[in-house]
Fold this protein.
Amino acid sequence: MPPPHPALKNLPNWLTLMRVVAVPVVVGIMLFIWPDYPVLRADESIESWWKDILILVNPDGQKNEILSFIAGFIFVIASLTDLLDGYLARKWDVVSNLGKMLDPLADKLMVMSAMIMLVPLGRLPAWMVVVVMAREISVTALRAIAAAEGKMVIEASALGKYKTVFQLIAISGLLFHFHNPYLNADLHNLGAVMFLVALFFTVWSGIDYFYKYWTAVA
């Protein structure tokens, strides 16, 4: 069915662009969050000008919870647009080549940038980020090779969708970094567990892509 108003025809693409715009916003906010370990705290010997800026914006790390909440909130809203733009594009039959290109690009930019920024904050091990990035680069390269050879088109599998969902949940929890002993709520631990699950599906889906490719060219 067509959109209720012609002006809404490009709404899915605009929602995708919003995710791209959200990337530098989240990264910028995370630059002013103190790490959980004391290497770069205000009382350590770091560049004085950078130390002055951090103390001005985030004195003694007191605004860590506020900044973490803002970064997590923006990330969650941006993640929800990922579901909404695809749904609207299919419902209104306005799927475009621009949307097909921007949608996965926006997803990767959003997820990768957030993961990279979580490493210096001590919330995510660097090796996990390396595994995820290696998988994404390998699968993207494999798709390009398959398309160039014209032998097959490797479509996203259910494993890839599970991977994306668990990644978004995990990163959201790690961004919020919220712990309330009275409510027995710890979003950081939830995010950490979900990221392990996401890592499992990341590796599994990557192996699945390579298996499909070699099966098709064999």
